[in-house]
User: Fold these one by one.
Assistant:
Number 1:
Amino acid sequence: MCAVVGVYGSENASKIAYYALFAMQHRGQESSGISASNGEEINLIKKRGLVTDIFNEESFEVLAGKCAIGHNRYSTAGKDSVLDAQPVFARYKLGEISVAHNGNLTNKLKVREELIERGAIFQTYMDTENIVHLIAKSQAGSLVDRIEDMIQKIEGAYCLIIQSRSKMFVIRDRFGIRPLSLGKLPDGGYIVASESCAFELVGAEFMRDVNPGEMITFENCNDGSVTYSSKQLFEADPRPCAFEYIYFARPDSNIDGKNVYQKRLQCGLELAKESPAEVDIVLPVPDSGVAAAMGYAKGVGAEFLMGIVRNHYVGRTFIEPTQQIRDLKVKMKLSPIKHLIEGKRVAIIDDSLVRGTTSRQIVRMLKDAGAKEVHMRIAAPEIKYPCRYGIDTPTQTELISASFTPEEIAKKIGAESLGFLSIEGLKNALGRDREYSLVSFDGNYFAGGCAESLNCSGA
Ligand code: AMP
């Protein structure tokens, strides 16, 4: 998960990065950071907490300069400490660099062991530190050559933004697993961000997505203007992550030319075709199931109602570590509108089912509110495998669909029935013009890594 942003050639680079990170807060709430270059040095501020809590007016005086890169962290690899916040800054032979990374490197441990063998010391458990070391240890003469050297040695999912004192480099892995878009700022500068929703807030015009396997280099021209050049480092083999569309990205973002809200609606329509339920009303699990539930309601011809209210002052339930607290948090977060539900046959739609905690609580909540029947529908296929490419999924034993059939899970969660979207249905919804990363559903670890262990070939 995580969000990255890079701004180049703008007077207000760090403020623009700040607003972009604010727009992408949903991609990570653990820590946030911005580094900015004024041409002579790179300054960095990073802390644990939310974007609005970390930065103030004074921060932007420290973060002066026309190039800024930033990061929101949601830990998937590494630990929960301020040292693990990004960007990662370093001084090395050629000067100063700062790196922000979204994704997960699957050969992280192997590379790290080799580096340690050669005398490298690490401050964190993050794969991003590998990247800094590989650049610093490369024998190539220029930074761009060192980056190309480094990129040959890493595997997995990555969107990288690398800042030197004068340039900015942006790289997306050859599968384009995580999203990354390029935009133009009103003052002539450029912005690169994980999600296009960030562009709206800063008034940037969407230009295009960064291509899988592409490196874009931003630099200053002699006349004071800025320019960028593109190089295809690897042949593109696009497989954007299906889970970005299903759950993770904001509905107003467009990823690789496809609007997230539209895709969720489509998933709901497909689900209605594959797994219709005879019901009086269709409710979403707010907010994650809203668009899919609208599609489902349309598909089965039942009334769509916002029958469950969400308390927005509670964070996402996944963030809490213990099962006991997770259970309580679902109740703190969601509350039913009884008079809409009483005596009704209800279809309740969520975007995904992971451990089954949310579904169990919600079915109970609806039954307590007087629902006659509760039919749970999930607008995604069964999650049977942990993601190794940057989505925070638990171990395989915790994934309820890895061990139980939909009928068994329906019993466990107390629903009259449970239906999932099939993998084929998901492909229909997302569009059959390309492949997708479906690893959580089909266990195809095409970019390295495997289900059993974080340590088998990386993390
Ligand atoms: P669970 O309660 O464990 O079955 O998780 C399912 C709920 O968590 C659904 O409401 C999803 O919207 C949400 N969810 C799915 N994947 C993630 C994730 N990687 N991080 C946080 N929440 C998630």
Number 2:
Amino acid sequence: MHNFDNINNLKKMQKKILITGGTGYIGSHTTIEFLEKGYQVVIIDNLSNSKIEALEGIIEITGKKVDFFQLDLTDKEHVAEFFEINKNIEAIIHFAAYKAVGQSVENPLMYYQNNLFSLINLLEAAQENNISNFVFSSSCTVYGEPDELPVKETSAIKKATSPYGNTKQISEDIINDLVNSNPNFKAIALRYFNPVGAHSSAKIGELPLGIPNNLVPFITQTAIGIREELKVFGDDYNTPDGTCIRDYIHVVDLAKAHVIAAERLLKSKNKTNFEVFNLGTGKGNSVLEVIKSFEKVTKTKLNFKITERRKGDVVAVFSHTDFANEELGWIAEKNLDDMMLSAWNWELNLRNRQ
Ligand code: WQD
């Protein structure tokens, strides 16, 4: 390592990043990317949808220490205390939120209360502590059933199809209004498509508590024998093979984009004070194509059957990636086979540890 790298890293060592939801699926992978780029990281998580073991995985993978505070962001007082103790935070990456579409339909108030009060408390604390760089975890779900494909950042934002999706839309509006009221505050919203896969070490990955809502963890749990069979929710859609199409993106590609977005703000390279980027591969794959990829890379036969459609599913959505590619200089590098193999290796490692 050259001397200027040392100095560079030393300088970054002074740059402290707060990652809320940092023991969660995308949060833990993002924490690793920041640590490996030489940043200090402090995590806030209430462990409502993640396990403290994720922290061990992060430390094992990076060999670096991470400060961790178990804290509920809806608790305003505790949030204020946290910022009393943790000074010199240069940027906030905000993941902490409930994210199950179906659960949000059954329990909307829990979603509005948790996702919006957490955000507002965090933004207020950021103002009080002069933290002016904010990266927000948003979702392609804000587009609903898009009129045009691939979907662009400028595509119409449709009425949300779930309270979860609505909390993402409202959150973006809250951040945008704050930016308009405070010229010193700048933010980037990253609209994820479908994050899947796991870190190559297989020491961290998606850890759905209970029965998985999402496709890929259900596939891996079926393949390892925890679930009897995968239900494919409908094959009578207007798509080539009749099953829904999504833009699956490797969680490590997604994590890397968060470092790039934070550095864009830290170096004031942002063009406006509230920017939105789609994070996808630009490629759509159907459910059956995902299954086929999984069977190919794992050399297993998946037990699945076609059942009726799932309410609320959009037929097809995949991202237009030019803006993120050109403006952020970021591109998703891993393909569907990489995603499936890494998801499987994580599942195998997880079960061998239990
Ligand atoms: C993908 C496809 C299902 C399970 C949601 C949120 C999004 C993000 C990711 C948080 C669909 C099919 C699924 C199963 C199936 N969440 N499927 N059998 O709904 O595209 O996106 O999760 O950020 O915001 O909206 O993801 O993985 O649930 O479904 O056939 O057991 O797989 O019908 O076509 P989705 P998903």
